[in-house]
Design brief:
With 241 residues, this protein is an alpha/beta fold. The protein has a single domain, classed as TIM Barrel (Alpha-Beta Barrel), CATH 3.20.20. It is 40% helix and 27% strand. It is built from eleven helices and twelve strands. Strands 1-4-5-6-7-10-11-12 form an eight-stranded parallel β-barrel, surrounded by eight helices.
C-alpha cells in the first residue's frame, strides 16, 4: 500500500484546509515544490497534488508549480483540481502526470470517462468520489447527489475509470481518525484500485486501511502537523502483513 503525501496549493502556498474550507487552514507554507521534495526525501513513492485555486475557480491556476514538481520530484504524481475538460486532462498527462483526478464532471456526466479513457488510457484516470452522510457530493462538497459511492463507482468503473480516490468528507481535515466502513464497502464492491483519503491521524489508521485492501492512502494534515512521521509510517506499512 502506498502512503501518498498531499501537496495542496492555494495562493502560491502549500496549505491544508479544515473540511475543505478555504478560510480555515491547519497549515500554510511557502514553496510547494520544496515541500514536495521533502516528502520524497522521507520516502514517498508518489505525490498527490491539488490545485485548490483551480478547484475553486473552475480553471487550472498552479500549472507552474505542478510542472516543476513533476520535473524535479522524481516520483509519479496524481493531480486534481481545476480539471474541467478532456483538454485539461490531456495537457497534464502530456506534462508527465501519472494520473489525473476527475471529480464533478465525471459524476455529472460519466460518459466523459469513456471518451477520456480512449484518449489517454484508463490507467491514467482516477475519479474522485467524495461522500457525506453516505451520498456522493460534488462542486466542492456543496451539492449532494442521489448516488451512494458504490452506485456511481460501478458506473464509472464500467465507463473506463482506472482507479477511485475516495474521500469521506465527514472525517476529512478534522484529525479525529477514520471511519473505515464507507471505504471498505467500495473496496469490496469494485474491481479497480481504491485510494483512501480523509481523516488519517495515526499510523494505526494507515494499517487499518491496508488491512481492508486499499491501493494507497493520501495523508495531509497529520504529516504537516507532525502527528504522523512520514518515514515511520511508510516503514510500518511496509513491515505489516
Amino acid at each position: 500500500m502506498l502512503v501518498i503525501p498531499a501537496v495542496d496549493m492555494k495562493n502560491k502556498k502549500c496549505v491544508q484546509l479544515i473540511q475543505g474550507n478555504p478560510d480555515k487552514k491547519h497549515v500554510e507554507l511557502d514553496n510547494p515544490p520544496e515541500i514536495a521534495k521533502k516528502w520524497v526525501n522521507e520516502g514517498a513513492e508518489m505525490l498527490h497534488l491539488v490545485d485548490l485555486d483551480g478547484a475553486l475557480d473552475g480553471k487550472r491556476v498552479n500549472d507552474e508549480f505542478i510542472e516543476e514538481i513533476i520535473k524535479t520530484s522524481g516520483v509519479p504524481v496524481q493531480i486534481g483540481g481545476g480539471i474541467r475538460s478532456i483538454e485539461d486532462a490531456e495537457y497534464l498527462v502530456e506534462k508527465g502526470a501519472k494520473k489525473v483526478i476527475i471529480g464533478t464532471i465525471a459524476v455529472e456526466n460519466p460518459e466523459i470517462i469513456k471518451e477520456l479513457s480512449k484518449r489517454i488510457g484508463s490507467e491514467k484516470i482516477m475519479v474522485s468520489l467524495d461522500a457525506k452522510d453516505g451520498k456522493v457530493v460534488i462542486k466542492g462538497w456543496k451539492e449532494k447527489t442521489k448516488y451512494t459511492p458504490v452506485q456511481i463507482g460501478k458506473i464509472l468503473e464500467e465507463m473506463g475509470a482506472g482507479s477511485i480516490l475516495f474521500t469521506n468528507v465527514d472525517s476529512e481535515g478534522l484529525l479525529n481518525g477514520i471511519n473505515i466502513e464507507p471505504t471498505k464497502e467500495l473496496v469490496d464492491n469494485l474491481k479497480i484500485p481504491i485510494v483512501a483519503s480523509g481523516g488519517v491521524t495515526t499510523i494505526d489508521d494507515l494499517l487499518k486501511l491496508k488491512e481492508i485492501g486499499v491501493y494507497g492512502v493520501v495523508v495531509g494534515s497529520a504529516i504537516y502537523k507532525n502527528m504522523i512521521n512520514l518515514k515511520d509510517a511508510i516503514e510500518a506499512v511496509n513491515k505489516s502483513n
